[in-house]
């Protein structure tokens, strides 16, 4: 199905790690610096406080500090949207985080489905009301928020786009057929299928370490997709520790984690 809604971005976005000082405190400035480095290398969107950013381990105040720092470093004139992950166990929590993200300069929100509920309609309605004019992207991430979004439900949700983190080719292709909004893959193993098949883009943890290769694979380069296999696996080792080790090797960031 051809998308009838304007995508928040196209191409490869990064699910940005959150940098912490050695004592575990938030290093918002270094996180913002990393965002700028990745933009210089071609990433098309910055996703904050998602799983790769250890969002569940951040307080509401830290989320605001992080968004403020990245927003200051990445002005809207840069044309690289900042997307805040605001999914929570309950609709009320997600709505509050969504309103705060809007107040602190996010360009869109990424909202995983409610926990342990197959029906997400009322949940996304409440989030959309809190978002106002801010685009709401639904996220299917069953590992983080089981059971995730059931495909028959997806076309009925009041959302402006959708990310599927599952590395499931059949599901991705079916999604592209039934959903009339922009679709993003969250799996760095699916890039060379997702791009040519019509996905709007990708939101990737691996883009913290290998943004250029991720972009080439999304463009349909199968050999580059194979070349990403080692990094795809390494990034998932004791997640997010493996990913942070990769980013540290390339950009000199701290390897301190709160989750893991």
Query: How does the helix and strand content classify structurally?
Result: alpha/beta
- Work out the helix count: 10
Query: SSE string, helix = H, strand = E?
Result: EHEHEHEHEEHEHEHHHH
Cα(first) to Cα(last) distance is 39 Å
Instruction: Report low-confidence residues grouped into runs of 5 or more.
Output: none
Give a count of the beta strands, DSSP E runs of length 2 or more: 8
What is the mean predicted local confidence, pLDDT? 95
Describe the structure.
The chain has 260 residues and is of the alpha/beta class. The protein is built from 10 helices and 8 strands. The chain has helices at 28-40, 60-73, 91-103, 121-131, 169-178, 191-197, 211-218, 222-227, 229-235, 241-251, and strands at 11-15, 46-48, 82-85, 108-112, 136-140, 161-164, 183-185, 201-204. The chain has an 8-stranded parallel β-barrel, surrounded by 7 helices. Helix 6 links the parallel strand 7 and strand 8 (201-204). Helix 1 (28-40) crosses helix 2 (60-73) and helix 3 (91-103) runs parallel beside helix 4 (121-131). The radius of gyration is 17 Å and the shape is globular.
In terms of topology, how is this protein built?
Elements: E1 11-15, H1 28-40, E2 46-48, H2 60-73, E3 82-85, H3 91-103, E4 108-112, H4 121-131, E5 136-140, E6 161-164, H5 169-178, E7 183-185, H6 191-197, E8 201-204, H7 211-218, H8 222-227, H9 229-235, H10 241-251
Parallel strand pairs: 1-2, 1-8, 2-3, 3-4, 4-5, 5-6, 6-7, 7-8
Helix pairs in contact: 1-2, 3-4, 6-7
């Amino acid at each position: 199905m051809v998308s009838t809604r304007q995508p928040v971005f196209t191409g490869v976005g990064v699910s940005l790690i959150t940098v912490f000082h050695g004592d575990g405190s938030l290093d918002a400035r270094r996180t913002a610096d990393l965002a700028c480095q990745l933009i210089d290398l071609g990433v098309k969107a910055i996703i904050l406080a998602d799983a790769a950013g250890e969002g569940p381990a951040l307080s509401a105040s830290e989320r605001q500090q992080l968004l403020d720092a990245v927003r200051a470093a990445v002005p809207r004139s840069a044309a690289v949207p900042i997307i805040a992950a605001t999914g929570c166990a309950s609709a009320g929590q997600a709505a509050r985080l969504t309103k705060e993200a809007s107040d602190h300069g996010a360009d869109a929100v990424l909202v995983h489905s409610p926990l342990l509920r197959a029906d997400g309609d009322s949940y996304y309605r409440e989030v959309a009301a809190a978002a106002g004019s801010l685009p709401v992207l639904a996220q299917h991430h069953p590992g983080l928020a089981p059971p995730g979004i059931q495909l028959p439900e997806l076309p009925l949700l009041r959302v402006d786009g959708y990310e599927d983190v599952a590395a499931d080719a059949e599901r991705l292709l079916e999604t592209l057929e039934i959903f009339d909004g922009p679709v993003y893959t969250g799996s760095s193993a699916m890039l060379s299928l997702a791009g040519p098949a019509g996905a709007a883009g990708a939101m990737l943890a691996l883009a913290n370490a290998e943004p250029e290769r991720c972009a080439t694979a999304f463009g349909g380069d199968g050999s580059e997709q194979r070349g990403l296999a080692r990094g795809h696996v390494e990034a998932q080792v004791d997640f997010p520790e493996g990913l942070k080790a990769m980013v540290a090797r390339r950009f000199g960031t701290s390897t301190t984690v709160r989750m893991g």
